[in-house]
């Protein structure tokens, strides 16, 4: 009997222990489930609309949330505490469910009755107020300058178009406030719709192009989640995109969404900002609407303590600021009191203030064609009588931009096929097809560019000189800006980020973060630009006559030079940048032209043979020459003698070119500072060369060799160029070793040997490079050791040695690298640096994340 009782007691104890352990493991998941189930209830039962009967439920919900937070933070080793919290959470969940089952239906009925009574009262007040406004207008007596009256219209076309629609005058608790007597620009106004928020629909606002298909649903849900979450603090969320991408349309969808209106209890305020807006008046007006405090007379300063505390017991507030043009504007208009969410709609990004930004996507082919057909034919698809191929070609030139689809489609409505064909050809050249296209699309988009600082604007216009649908090498772009705008490299990179933040270009491969390092190379990074933005750059650059333009660029690839260029060839062209895009060019295909002011020449082509134009020899001011072959194989160059007179050339970029063997005697390029060889076939043109490179390139400071797969070794004569400051060799799979004489380059401060898997050692003379600051040997998988005298590099600041899997040890002298501050490596290699970390002050060893990127495979 005693044994039976003992076994029963032991079984009960074991079951209790198992239940406790199970509760411990499920404690956090139960806490998360409880939080998700009760957190949405909290806004419904507290705030200005919470009644006495709901206080009990509000207290239960708050207690449940606090309990969930405690359970989520509880340590799992405390089994008793976790089990106790789990039981309490179950009890709290059951209690809230019972309350809702018993009392919720009655509260719904009572709330409906109160809403009906309140609506009747507000309609009465509205009718009286309309009569007062009419009387005031008849007597023509102006109101006090700062007086504003809160009115709550839902923002739709009917109310913007007609002042006769009754509008509800609201008290201080809710409503979209509108200045009813003296509307200011940017405020929703009934009598003068062109001055208000509704102007985007009345006047054909550039953002009224709209979104279609599933895009608007995805965008709405993303933004709704951001503005309806985040706790009780203030927060700024953004909608960003190029002009005409549908930003304002999306913001209006958020404004009208029933769930958003219910969450904020209709306390949503929509304000349009302009470039020359009166920010003090707008902020005052918004504050009156939010706080419900009428400001009378000349008082025009909001007390700071009011701004910090916010409206008392009002619940969450959403302020939508449309068409914001600068960070300074935004900083003045963001209210930072608890519960205030600000939705910023802008062509630009404001990463320092905006926590999350939704970037507007462009329409896919099917959606774009639907929008285009609605504008051109008033139906969703191409009519039977229309030329389907031609319609699709014209629609494709709009590149998925909603505003472009609407404007261009409307301009071609009821036009004959020849006009459509002309439009397709003009669009492919980046030209306007009609006055409406120029004024409604290009000129409106130009506003984003014209507000930029002069040098930033010039850098944007330079991007129109590169081919459409092609990635622009970041190194090329930065170098051109440095040469023709007299910029330092950090300043050029800052302009690049500014244009990116303003949605005027797109950085590829996370260039903003990865290329921003002090020792980063740009060879792995590129830039893209939407074709409509490229058309805009061409449109703005083409405002002058052909021979007077600062940039002379072929809008698209052609088999020969443009006819208008040939017609004007007898007059010198004043262009600073010349960009030519052709196929194969022979000597007979060129004509003599004069470019006395040209500083940059970009030659884009696709062929196996390419003859350099003879007029290069007359470009006495040429600083940068870029040759990019988009063909499938490397191109052989003819007429290399054109280089002989380029005494001022500072930068040379050759991509997918077959380099001929270098002759023994070559006329020196005395001012050449930078050579970049990308995807080139060297054909051993460097190996065994007896030419004295130090004489040919006496001032060369930067040498880049990338993806030159037949490069096996560097000629030792390169080590005679004492002016070299940077050598970058990357993705050269056959390179086995570097010349022993490398130590002669006493000015070298950057040595990059990246992704060269056949390289098995570094020459010992590397340790003589006293000025070396950065060494990159990453992805050299066959490198087994480092030179023993590595510690002699007393100025070395950073080493990148990720994916050096065969490197098993470090030289003992590595502890002498006193200037070393940053090492990037794999986890295994990081263990080798532990001893050095204890000796070298401020050394940071960073374990790199594995990254497999195939973007370079895409043209």
TrEMBL record:
The keyword Repeat applies. The gene is ga12028. SUPFAM superfamilies: L domain-like (SSF52058), P-loop containing nucleoside triphosphate hydrolases (SSF52540). Keywords: Plant defense, Repeat. Residues 727-805 form the Disease resistance R13L4/SHOC-2-like LRR domain. PANTHER family: PLANT BROAD-SPECTRUM MILDEW RESISTANCE PROTEIN RPW8 (PTHR36766), TIR-NBS TYPE DISEASE RESISTANCE PROTEIN-RELATED (PTHR36766:SF30). It comes from the Eukaryota. It comes from Eleusine coracana subsp. coracana. This is RPW8 domain-containing protein. GO terms for biological process: defense response. GO terms for molecular function: ADP binding. Pfam families: LRR_14, NB-ARC. Residues 220-380 form the NB-ARC domain.
């Amino acid at each position: 009997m005693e044994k039976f009782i003992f076994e029963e007691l032991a079984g009960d104890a074991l079951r209790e222990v198992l239940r406790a352990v199970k509760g411990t493991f499920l404690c956090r998941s139960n806490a998360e489930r409880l939080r998700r189930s009760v957190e949405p209830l909290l806004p419904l039962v507290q705030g200005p609309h919470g009644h006495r009967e709901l206080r009990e439920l509000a207290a239960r919900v708050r207690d449940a949330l606090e309990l969930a937070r405690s359970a989520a933070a509880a340590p799992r080793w405390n089994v008793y505490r976790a089990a106790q919290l789990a039981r309490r959470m179950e009890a709290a969940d059951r209690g809230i469910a019972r309350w809702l089952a018993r009392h919720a239906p009655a509260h719904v009925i009572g709330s409906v009755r109160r809403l009906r009574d309140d609506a009747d009262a507000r309609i009465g007040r509205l009718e009286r107020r309309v009569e007062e406004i009419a009387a005031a207008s008849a007597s023509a007596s102006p109101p006090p300058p700062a007086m504003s009256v809160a009115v709550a219209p839902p923002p739709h076309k009917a109310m913007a178009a007609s002042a006769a629609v009754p509008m509800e005058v609201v008290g201080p608790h809710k409503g979209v406030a509108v200045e009813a007597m003296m509307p200011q620009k940017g405020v929703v106004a009934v009598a003068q719709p062109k001055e208000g928020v509704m102007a985007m629909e009345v006047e054909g606002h550039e953002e009224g192009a709209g979104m279609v298909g599933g895009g608007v649903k995805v965008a709405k849900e993303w933004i709704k989640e951001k503005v309806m979450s985040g706790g009780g603090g203030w927060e700024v969320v953004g909608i960003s995109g190029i002009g005409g991408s549908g930003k304002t349309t999306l913001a209006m969808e958020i404004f009208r969404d029933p769930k958003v209106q219910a969450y904020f209890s209709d306390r949503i305020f929509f304000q349009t900002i302009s470039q020359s807006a009166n920010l003090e008046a707008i902020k005052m007006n918004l504050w009156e609407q939010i706080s419900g405090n009428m400001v009378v007379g000349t008082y025009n300063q909001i007390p700071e303590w009011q701004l910090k505390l916010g409206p008392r017991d009002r619940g969450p507030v959403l302020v939508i600021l449309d068409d914001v043009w600068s960070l300074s504007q935004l900083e003045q208009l963001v209210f930072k009191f608890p519960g205030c969410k600000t939705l910023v709609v802008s062509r630009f990004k404001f990463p320092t203030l905006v926590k999350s930004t939704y970037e507007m996507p462009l329409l896919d082919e099917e959606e774009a064609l639907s929008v285009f057909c609605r504008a051109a034919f008033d139906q969703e698809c191409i009519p039977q009588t229309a030329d389907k191929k031609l319609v699709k070609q014209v629609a494709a030139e709009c590149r998925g931009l909603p505003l472009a689809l609407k404007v261009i489609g409307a301009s071609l409505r009821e036009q004959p096929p020849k006009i459509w064909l002309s439009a397709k050809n003009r669009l492919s050249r980046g030209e306007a097809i009609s006055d409406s296209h120029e004024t409604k699309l290009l000129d409106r988009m130009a506003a984003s560019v014209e507000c930029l600082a002069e040098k930033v604007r010039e850098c944007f216009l330079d991007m129109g000189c590169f081919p459409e649908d092609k990635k622009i090498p970041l190194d090329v772009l930065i170098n051109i800006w440095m040469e023709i705008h007299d910029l330092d490299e950090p300043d050029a990179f800052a302009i690049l980020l500014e244009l990116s933040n303003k949605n005027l270009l797109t950085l590829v491969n996370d260039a903003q973060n990865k290329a921003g390092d002090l020792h980063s190379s740009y060879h792995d990074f590129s830039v893209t630009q939407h074709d409509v933005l490229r058309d805009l750059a061409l449109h703005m650059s083409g405002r002058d006559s052909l021979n007077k333009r600062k940039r002379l660029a072929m809008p698209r690839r052609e088999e020969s030079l443009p006819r208008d260029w040939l017609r004007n060839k007898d007059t010198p062209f004043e262009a600073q940048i010349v960009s030519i895009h052709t196929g194969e060019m022979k000597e007979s295909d060129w004509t003599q032209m004069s470019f006395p002011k040209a500083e940059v020449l970009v030659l884009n082509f696709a062929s196996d043979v390419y003859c350099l134009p003879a007029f290069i020899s007359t470009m006495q001011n040429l600083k940068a020459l870029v040759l990019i072959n988009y063909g499938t194989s490397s191109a052989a160059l003819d007429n290399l003698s054109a280089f002989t007179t380029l005494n001022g050339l500072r930068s040379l970029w050759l991509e997918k070119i077959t380099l001929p063997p270098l002759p023994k005697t070559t006329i020196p390029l005395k001012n050449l500072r930078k050579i970049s060889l990308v995807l080139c076939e060297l054909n051993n043109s460097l190996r065994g060369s007896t030419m004295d490179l130090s004489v040919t390139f006496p001032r060369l400071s930067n040498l880049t060799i990338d993806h030159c797969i037949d490069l096996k070794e560097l000629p030792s004569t390169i080590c005679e160029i004492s002016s070299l400051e940077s050598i970058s060799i990357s993705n050269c799979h056959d390179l086995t070793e570097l010349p022993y004489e490398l130590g002669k380059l006493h000015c070298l401060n950057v040595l990059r040997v990246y992704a060269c898997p056949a390289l098995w050692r570094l020459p010992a003379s590397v340790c003589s490079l006293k000025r070396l600051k950065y060494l990159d040997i990453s992805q050299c998988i066959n490198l087994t050791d480092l030179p023993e005298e590595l510690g002699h590099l007393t100025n070395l600041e950073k080493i990148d040695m990720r994916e050096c899997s065969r490197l098993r040890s470090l030289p003992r002298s590595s502890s002498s690298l006193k200037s070393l501050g940053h090492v990037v490596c794999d986890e295994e290699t990081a263990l080798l640096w532990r001893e050095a970390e204890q000796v070298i002050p401020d050394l940071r060893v960073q374990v790199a994340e594995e990254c497999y990127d195939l973007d370079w495979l895409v043209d």
